[in-house]
Fold:
Amino acid sequence: MKTILKILTCIILSFNFTSYAFTSTGSKDITVIVNAKVGGTNYVRSNLYIKALSDAGYNVKEINQPDTRVAVTMFNEINEPTVMTYVSNQPTIYPLQASSKNFVMIEMAQPMFICQSKNFTKKELYSVGIGKQIPQTSFVKLFKSLGYKVKMIPYTNSSAVYKGLLGGDVDFMVNSQSTSLQFMQSQSGKCIGQTLSEEHLGVPSLEKTTKLKNLPVLYYTIMAKNIDINLLRKDLKQIIMNNSEIVSYHKKIDAIVLNEDYKKELQIVKDSEKVWMGK
Structure:
């Protein structure tokens, strides 16, 4: 496993223009599967790692596959040292569950937001725009705890949900942090809560408001196979905490960077998988 350790240590130190001795793994090649649409958050973060590997002088084979089902199948079947930047927490849809054999770390976390239009009026039944792959069960329970009887209106993606709220087609939206912040900045309404356990970006915690636990949160993870997980994790943790480009990127998107031990991070992801499955 010496070359992978060598690769990842060079990533860390290439930004500091110093040298560091890696342990060789017998191969100078590494495959990085980028499960993201070009230009999106996951695409940007993935390319920070790819750039670091390339700058260190190693042969990076990049596979860009925005279709999560195809990306997961690739990851499951590949037989070479491979890293995948991942964001899905839905193993009932995509056949990949976090385990000690493939989970490296949580890179960052972002909550889901509940927002309402400034033209919001009281009624008996409210409509909620939500992405079709977001677990509706958790949010129906959440709205009930807030005192709202709702019907969920599924949309194809985050952008469509946003447009639905702006157009008055729904009363609420459940959406990602980036889209929700865009909504607040447009002064088209307000976000009444988010799913992290503490207040985030001035928006109150729905856990504190409703007393519900384990609400849906997006955990951006790094998965790997055919690699020493412990060595990979150690080096990637150093990169995330000390690399100026990645630190600046996390600040720019207001991400929460976790710094827990391995067992706790793995358990967080396993619990999150259950939530996203509607359990």
